Structures are given as C-alpha cells and as structure tokens.
C-alpha cells in the first residue's frame, strides 16, 4: 500500500494495549506531562488551558484509580496532592470533586473546574457533530463558560476520545444519534456542525452527505423553531466552488460544478444555507451562518486525509509528501482555536447573514509542503500525484465583514498553529506507531 492509495490504515499498538493493560507507558506518561505543563496555566485550583484542550490522540479507557492518578499529573495544587482513594470517605470526596470538573484523559490532560452559573445564566447548548475535531473544541469552550452542553453525534468521523474528559460532568450530555432523524429536546442554542468535512470522507457516501446537509439541517431548524432556539450553521468556503473572484467575499455567488465529486458537499451546504434563510423569513428563526475556511489543529483525525494532517504525518515519518497536481493551488489556513472564537462571537452577536471565518494567510500547496518539511526537519521527498477533480485553484477569505460585525480576527499565525499540530501528531505517532494517511478519492474514516 502506498501513501497515495485510497485505502489506508493506522496501526494501533501501544495505546490500545495501554488502556487494556492499565499500566502507564513511559513515553505516554511523558506525553501527559509535556501536554499539561505546555498547555496549562494554573490559577488557584483551576487549570486554564492555553487554547482549550488540544490533545485527543487515541482510544483509551480508564479505571477510576487511573483518573485519580491522572489528576496528580495536572498543574493544579489541589490535584497535585490527590492520590488514589484508600478509604470510602476519600473516594466520596474525590468523586464529588470530579463531579463538578472534567476528568483528565489523554484527550485533555488537565482537569478543569467549570464556573457555576445561575440557572438563569446557564444555557442549554446543543452541538451537532460535537465529538468531531471542531465540535469538541467548541464543547470545551462552552463547558468552560459554565453552560450545559448536549452533543449529538453519529460517530462517522467524530471520536469519543475527543469528549471523554467531560463524560461524567453533570453539565454534559452525549446523544449518539444522527441529525437525519428528528429530535425533540429543550435547548437555547444549536451549533449545527454535523457533516463530514474532509473530501475523501464526504465523497464516501455522497447521498448520505446530501441527506446530512438537507434533512439534517431541516430537522435542526424544525427543533429551533419549536423551542425558539438560536441556530448556527457551519457552512463552508466550498460554497464558492472554484472561485473566479479572489479573495472571496460573502457576496460572491460562487462557481460550483453541480455534478462533480465535490458537489454532494458544496451543493448540500448551499441548500442548507437556503433553508436557514427560508426558516428565518417564514418562521422567524434566529439564524447564524459561518462560512469556514480550511481549519487545522490537534484532534484532527490521523486519517482525515486533508492536507495538514497528511503533510505533517508524512513528514514526521520521512515518507513522501503527496502533492495532488503541481502544488500551485492555494489555501489559507486557520488554527482551530481562532475558528471556535469566531463561531462563539457569531452566535453571541446580532449579525444574521453569512460570515467568512478564516485566516487570510495564503500558501500554495507546494509552499505549504516545504514549510512543514522544514518545521519537522524531515527527509521526506516531495511526490506529485494526479490533481483531484474540481479541486479549487485558489482560496482565501476576505474577513473584513467578520472584523466589522464580530470584532473577530485570527490571533494564531499559521506557523504557531503548525508547531502545536506537529507536536500533537508527534505524540500520536509515539503512541500508535506507523500511520499511513488517507490518499485521494472517496474513503471511509478508519479508526
Ligand atoms: O480543511 C478545511 O477546512 C476544508 O477542507 C476541505 O477543503 P480542501 O481545501 O479541499 O482541503 P484539503 O483536502 O486539505 O486540500 C487542500 C489542498 O491540498 C491538496 N492536498 C490534499 C491532501 C494531500 O495529501 N495532498 C494535497 O496536495 C488538495 O488537492 C487541495 O488542493 C473541505 O472540503 C472543506 O469543507 C473544509 O472547510
């Protein structure tokens, strides 16, 4: 199997055994400490992550005593002194402590105490696709504000490891389900993220991708209408297709091939936007639309197949870096914490028309490959493969509207974000062994 093959695999070795063996692995233990020390700032007994909790590399399960031990690995004094419970009273005390806090896991190696809001201030917020890469970072932010978070995810691309740390928190609920099925519950806000976003994944079952964006969005709008909730749709830069205008502003109508391999996603999101406005105008639903440009960061699935995870994983293993086409196509990359801040600002602001959220720092794919190769001190060769069908030639957001309406702009440079992402994947590789990233063409996410 070559890295360019449409099939792919991740060899899981040490880490799955870890959970089962219930023993600490030395590199893993080191990983936790690096993460905790590198990411957290302790204030009193609360550990505030530098950019939420960023590390979610693997499947693992933990015993209660392991939770206790992990708590000793945080920077917080309170946790530093905690140890395995010896008596019933100690166990009760520790259980109470963890009941109001997150539980440290490899996904989020710092324990975090969530603020106690009054019931009037505390909102019930649903995130569809909340176990995914972006959704789980958003969940962290909302939990850290003290809200109640309900995640609805079908785990097609989402991973439980991304949200494990909140599972026993009283403000957190997980519903394993699909947005294509109607759902009845009480919520104040809905962040509707559910939909595979990586081209190989959304092309795997195009009919399902269309249903997710259409029936799924209809169901979420129906819910918003019934309970009077505000709803935010994560749309995409892909609605501009292969743009003939550069950079792209929100008033550009786009250049989409309605019959191409990407159209299930592009057209699905376009119709989802249309539905949002139909419900706004006909039913007075309070809507928000974010058009998200290429986003990267820790918790991207190693087999996501998008350019950032592929190039980083290939470089770290000194394997060929696969460029599709000549590498002259451009993309503009934003770090995940900036996106999460933008989504939050949009939901909490008053602006109801579509807004681009992206970082205008633009790279050709070839430049991007060289940048990652240099940052990882890799010996990888650059390998050119066939260009993929309908791959947009240029993409860069005009974010003047987001600056004006949301007072938002990205704070993390691409290089800073890449450094964090490289460290993340370095640790993933330490734990999992070899990874062969997903190549071009439709494919199912592999665990
Ligand atoms: O990351 C994102 O946020 C966006 O990713 C994808 O859009 P795309 O720009 O095609 O993302 P990638 O698959 O990461 O591709 C970026 C460029 O790198 C190239 N690429 C990708 C992977 C690879 O191994 N080699 C390579 O040259 C692609 O051909 C493309 O030109 C999704 O379709 C968007 O919905 C999503 O918003």
Keywords:
447 residues; alpha/beta; Rossmann fold; 2 domains; seven-stranded parallel β-sheet; two-stranded antiparallel ribbon; 14 helices; 17 strands; 15% strand; disordered N terminus; binds uridine-5'-diphosphate-glucuronic acid; signal-anchor; golgi apparatus
Main β-sheet, spatial strand arrangement: 6-5-4-7-8-9-14
| Alpha-beta classification | alpha/beta
**Uncertain ranges:** 1-82
How much is the radius of gyration in Å? 21 Å
Name given to the CATH architecture of the largest domain: 3-Layer(aba) Sandwich
CATH superfamily of the largest domain: NAD(P)-binding Rossmann-like Domain
Total of domains: 2
Biggest beta sheet attributes: 7 strands, parallel
From the 3D structure, determine the CATH topology of the largest domain.
Rossmann fold
Percent strand equals 5-15%
Termini gap: 17 Å
User: How many strand units?
Assistant: 17
Total helix count? 14
| CATH class identity of the largest domain | Alpha Beta
Rounded average pLDDT: 83
TL;DR of this structure?
The chain has 447 residues and is an alpha/beta fold.
């Amino acid at each position: 199997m070559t890295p360019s093959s449409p099939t792919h695999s991740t060899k899981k070795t040490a880490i799955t055994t870890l959970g089962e063996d219930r023993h600490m692995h030395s590199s893993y233990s080191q990983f936790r400490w690096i993460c905790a020390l590198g990411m957290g700032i302790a204030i009193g007994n609360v550990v505030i992550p530098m950019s939420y909790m960023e590390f979610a590399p693997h499947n693992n399960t933990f015993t209660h005593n392991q939770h206790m031990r992990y708590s000793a690995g945080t920077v917080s004094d309170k946790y530093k002194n905690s140890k395995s419970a010896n008596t019933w009273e100690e166990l009760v005390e520790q259980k109470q402590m963890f009941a109001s806090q997150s539980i440290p896991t490899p996904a989020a190696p710092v324990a975090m105490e969530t603020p106690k809001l009054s019931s009037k201030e505390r909102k019930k917020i649903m995130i569809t696709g909340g176990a995914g890469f972006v959704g789980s970072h958003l969940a962290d932010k909302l939990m850290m504000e003290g809200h109640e978070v309900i995640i609805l995810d079908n785990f097609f691309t989402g991973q439980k490891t991304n949200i494990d740390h909140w599972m026993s928190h009283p403000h957190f609920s997980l519903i394993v389900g699909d947005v294509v099925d109607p759902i009845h519950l009480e919520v104040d806000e809905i962040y509707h993220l559910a939909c595979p976003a990586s081209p190989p994944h959304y092309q795997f079952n195009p009919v399902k991708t269309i249903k997710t964006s259409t029936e799924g969005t209809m169901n979420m709008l129906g819910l918003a209408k019934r309970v009077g909730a505000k709803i935010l749709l994560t749309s995409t830069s892909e609605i501009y297709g292969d743009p003939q205008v550069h950079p792209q502003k929100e008033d550009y109508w786009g250049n989409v091939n309605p019959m191409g391999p990407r159209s299930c996603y592009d057209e699905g999101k376009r119709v989802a936007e249309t539905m949002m406005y139909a419900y706004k105008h006909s039913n007075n639903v309070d809507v928000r639309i974010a058009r998200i440009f290429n986003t990267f960061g820790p918790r991207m699935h190693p087999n996501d197949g998008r350019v950032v995870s592929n190039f980083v994983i290939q470089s770290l293993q000194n394997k060929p870096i696969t460029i599709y086409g000549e590498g002259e196509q451009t993309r503009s990359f934003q770090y995940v914490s900036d996106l999460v801040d933008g989504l939050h600002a949009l939901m909490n602001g008053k602006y109801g028309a579509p807004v681009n959220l992206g970082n205008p720092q633009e790279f050709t794919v070839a430049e991007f490959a060289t940048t990652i190769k240099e940052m990882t001190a890799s010996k990888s060769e650059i390998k050119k493969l066939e260009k993929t069908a309908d791959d947009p030639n240029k993409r860069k957001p005009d974010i003047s509207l987001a600056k004006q309406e949301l007072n938002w702009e990205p704070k993390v440079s691409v290089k800073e974000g890449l450094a964090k992402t490289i460290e993340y994947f370095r640790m993933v590789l330490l734990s999992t062994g070899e990874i062969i990233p997903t190549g071009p063409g439709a494919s199912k996410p592999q665990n």
